[in-house]
Amino acid sequence: MRSSPAAVPAPPEPGTGTSFGVYVHIPFCAHRCDYCAFATWDDRPQLAPDYVLACRAEIDRAVDGGMPAATSVFFGGGTPSLLPAGDLVSILDAIPRRDGVEVTVECNPEHADPDRLAAWRRGGVTRLSFGVQSMGPVRARTARPAPRSRRRPTRRRRCRIGGVCRGVQRRSHLRRRR
């Protein structure tokens, strides 16, 4: 547990350019992607509650040791959006943050339901990152959009519903070869 809020050093004066980012790795996945080289598990969801507690304990130790307030927080993985919204927010609550901090969560589109997004927004999440890394070059060239009648609400629409629409971003590591 934190000894007191005073354990967090005061933020630097505006204009000093000092920033501090926090990366929180959530190693749980629904399945292992063939392109992934990260430390992830697709067969141990039962460890998630203990992992959340361990993250909070590690953050508390860092705060007690003088960790500054974050200017940026990024939840990556794995699949951070697999965690229940309350668990992710409880980790975020442990991180001291400056006003206006950007908090990003990597999210799979199927997890972007209005309740989860609204809970994240209330908890301080300001940005989502939807990856398309699994679209290999062949699949990207041959992919066709679904007919309008079968399309689900777009990521952007779901994010507006959930209130996390600032900076909805689609990330792609695909490079066109010429």
Automatic annotation (TrEMBL):
Residues 136-158 are annotated as: Disordered. CDD domains: Radical_SAM. Coiled coil: none annotated. Gene3D superfamilies: Aldolase class I (3.20.20.70). Signal peptide: none annotated. Pfam families: Radical_SAM. The keyword S-adenosyl-L-methionine applies. Residues 14-178 form the Radical SAM core domain. Residues 147-158 have a biased composition (Basic residues). Keywords: Iron, Iron-sulfur, Metal-binding, S-adenosyl-L-methionine. This is Radical SAM protein. It comes from Acidiferrimicrobium australe. The lineage of its organism: Bacteria, Bacillati, Actinomycetota, Acidimicrobiia, Acidimicrobiales.
